[in-house]
Amino acid sequence: MPSTHARFSPSAANRRLHCPPSLMLEEQFQDEESAYAAEGTAGHAMAEHLIKKYLKQRTRRPVSDYYPDELLEAVEEYVSFVQGEIEEARRVCKDPVFTVEQRVDASEYVEGCFGTADMVIVTDSYIHIIDLKLGRGVQVFADHNEQLMIYGLGVLSKAELLYDPKVVRLTIFQPRLNHCSTWEIDPAELEQWGEKVLRPTGAMALMGAGEFATGSWCRFCKARNQCRARAEEFLKLARRSGQCPVREGRRGPGWPHQSL
């Protein structure tokens, strides 16, 4: 797996595209890997090994402290799904391409934008990108999922050298939530999104331009507890409900200094 850090990471694309200046704000904070993240890394490594083994590619079984039976069952459920998609690709295409934990580069649209796609299938008629998510908390849907759309752009630029795919299929597989979401987009429509949305908004993010905006994308932001825009949003909600969380002269750090 690539270890180089992407400044504009596809996994944070939802946050960057809704709140461009969050990129530079978050860069002030160090990354701290949680036990959940370590478990996810271990799970992905095992999935990679099992799929490569199925494809008869060179691989070595990973060793980790994060392999309880429940995690292995979740990984095996994902691997079974991928195996089915591999066989379907072999059925419809003479020479499909399969890559596991593939580095995908979208720097054509945003400088320093690259990530790792868990599973990529390329046939003469479609591209299929499959993303494994091992978390237990939030269901994630493939419909207009920015992370997978960026992966789609990166894969499409390479796949078009071999084939003329008519569809880009994006799938998010969450075995611990019994959730699988698939969405399809026309390649031309995807490229149009890349030009009209990703490219200009990505450029703003890299420069620290644009407006701060609050929303569901704040959930995993490293700067969420120091964000002025988020604090102001809380104050607005408090005013509407008549339950202001602070009194005059007793504001915590990061709260706007204004009379209520």
Compact summary:
This protein has 260 residues and is an alpha+beta fold. The chain has seven helices and five strands, in the order ααααβββαββαα.
Structural class: alpha+beta
Distance N to C terminus: 51 Å
Q: What portion of residues is helical?
A: 40-55%
Major sheet, described briefly?
Answer: 5 strands, mixed
Counted by DSSP, the helix tally is 7
What are the low-pLDDT stretches, counting only 5+ consecutive residues below 50? 247-260
Mean pLDDT: 90
Radius of gyration over C-alpha positions, nearest whole angstrom:
21 Å
The CATH topology turns out to be: Lambda Exonuclease, Chain A
Strand order of the largest sheet: 1-2-3-4-5
CATH class: Alpha Beta
Number of domain modules: 1
Number of strands: 5
Shape: globular
Order of helices and strands: HHHHEEEHEEHH
> So, CATH architecture?
Alpha-Beta Complex
How large a portion of the residues is in β-strands, by DSSP E? 15-25%
